[in-house]
Amino acid sequence: MQTILITGASSGYGLETARHFLAGGWNVIATMRRPDPAVLPQAENLRILPLDVTDADSIAACIEAAGPVDVLVNNAGIGVVGAFEATPMAHIRRVFDTNTFGVMAMCQAVIPQMRARRAGTIVNVTSSVTLASFPLAAPYKASKQAIEGFSEALAEELAFFGIRVKIVEPGYAPTTRFAGNSAINPLDLIPEAYQPFAAPIFAEFGNPKMTTREADVAGAIWAAANDTSAQRHFPAGEDAVHLAKIRQFGG
């Protein structure tokens, strides 16, 4: 039975992914900054471990407790929406600490054991913001775009050791805690001069034509974790698939 370790599994995509792999018969290590056993049903093939991907000691303790990991899913992330001009640099650094450096740190922590076994898969969850230009999300897009480039290079580097690197690109899911995880109300980051520009964008956020369900992302992560082909990118959700096709074929 294979073992998967999922970061940011207390809610949203991570929680749904843990449920999906549990149902699929995998050993699941669901990690959370503040572990809450109530969010998942008790099962012999489930462990919940504390993990803060921005803390080196927390990462080391988690990896030691986890033992051998066949698949790492880097899902933990925080967001920020608003005018870049008004976004505090302290929060931008926090976004990069989690979304970019946290992912890199987790990869660095599991690669040695995967390299020794000459097997393993790393699934990095980015975002559909990497598939097109998204105004009012510049720092967030940058943090996720960095992981796209990192993953592409890492995939080539680790293929020699039999380790696969995959990228899952979720679309817009209004039901996730993206805004809540940002710790800053987007409306506080829209100066008066930006309001005429931002109003129609926020209106579209409130009434999107296409969206992504948490189950879409869990399904894409499942596909990526089990894929043995050369495919690297797995858009998740109707809107993300649409944007990926536009990027590939134009239109």
How would you characterize the overall build of this protein?
The chain is of the alpha/beta class and 251 residues long. It has a single domain (3-249), classed as NAD(P)-binding Rossmann-like Domain (Rossmann fold, 3-Layer(aba) Sandwich). The chain is built from 8 helices and 7 strands; from the N terminus they run βαββαβαβαβαααβα. It has helices at 12-23, 56-66, 89-117, 138-159, 178-182, 195-206, 214-226, 238-249; strands at residues 3-6, 27-32, 46-50, 71-74, 120-125, 163-170, 233-236. A 7-stranded parallel sheet has the order 3-2-1-4-5-6-7, with helices on both faces. Helix 3 links the parallel strand 4 and strand 5 (120-125). Helix 1 crosses helix 7, helix 2 (56-66) runs parallel beside helix 3 (89-117) and helix 3 runs parallel beside helix 4 (138-159). The longest helix is centred in the middle third of the chain and has 29 residues, at 89-117. The radius of gyration is 18 Å and the shape is globular. The protein starts with a strand and ends with a helix. The mean pLDDT is 93.
Set out the fold topology:
Blueprint: E1 3-6, H1 12-23, E2 27-32, E3 46-50, H2 56-66, E4 71-74, H3 89-117, E5 120-125, H4 138-159, E6 163-170, H5 178-182, H6 195-206, H7 214-226, E7 233-236, H8 238-249
Parallel strand pairs: 1-2, 1-4, 2-3, 4-5, 5-6, 6-7
Summary of the model, kept short:
It contains 8 helices and 7 strands, in the order βαββαβαβαβαααβα. It has helices at 12-23, 56-66, 89-117, 138-159, 178-182, 195-206, 214-226, 238-249, and strands spanning 3-6, 27-32, 46-50, 71-74, 120-125, 163-170, 233-236. α3 packs parallel to α4 (138-159).
